[in-house]
Write a structure and sequence with these properties.
The chain is an alpha+beta fold. Helix content is 32%, strand content 35%.
Length: 161
């Protein structure tokens, strides 16, 4: 089963100063945090804020190439979690032809934002990751929930590089 997610924004882990993507299940209580690198966070923020660079950035270039080839990004799915590493797949469509491309979640999200494609997470990823839900009891997840709840919602999406 797939869960449609909304990118709520990016924030910083106060302990490590690492950027965290905050994905929220559109139809459920789950929040999925994914720790990413600073450059990946920058690419996502540019997409979130729809900033136009003077020259195409890598994710803009990828979207431009796909557009020129009449290939549409149908969706992205964060579909695997193995040894604390998330994996994603881009689902592309060219007319009746459909194909998939393996991607890092941060790259897939950066491209999805530019293409206005939907973001999904598989149930198995949610089951095996540090998801925060209304009924979370685990001590580690309680700490993560406290961290996210202590953050001002105005800070989401306002991460500055």
């Amino acid at each position: 089963m797939l869960h449609k997610m909304i990118l709520k924004g990016i924030t910083l882990d106060p302990t490590t100063n690492s950027p965290i993507i905050i994905l929220k299940d559109q139809h459920g209580p789950s929040i999925l945090p994914i720790w990413i690198g600073i450059f990946e966070a920058n690419a996502i923020m540019i997409g979130l804020e729809k900033i136009k660079a003077p020259r195409p950035m890598t994710h803009d270039l990828i979207k431009n190439i796909l557009d020129e080839m009449h290939v549409r990004i149908a969706k992205i799915i964060i579909d695997d979690l193995n040894e604390n590493v998330f994996y994603a797949t881009l689902y592309l469509k060219n007319g009746e032809q459909e194909f998939t491309i393996d991607a890092r979640p941060s790259d897939a999200i950066a491209i999805a934002l530019r293409a206005e494609a939907e973001i999904y997470v598989s149930s198995s990823v949610l089951e095996h990751s540090s998801v925060i839900t209304e009924d979370t009891q685990d001590h580690e997840q309680d700490a993560l929930r406290a961290l996210l709840e202590s953050m001002d919602p105005e800070d989401f999406g306002k991460y500055k590089m």
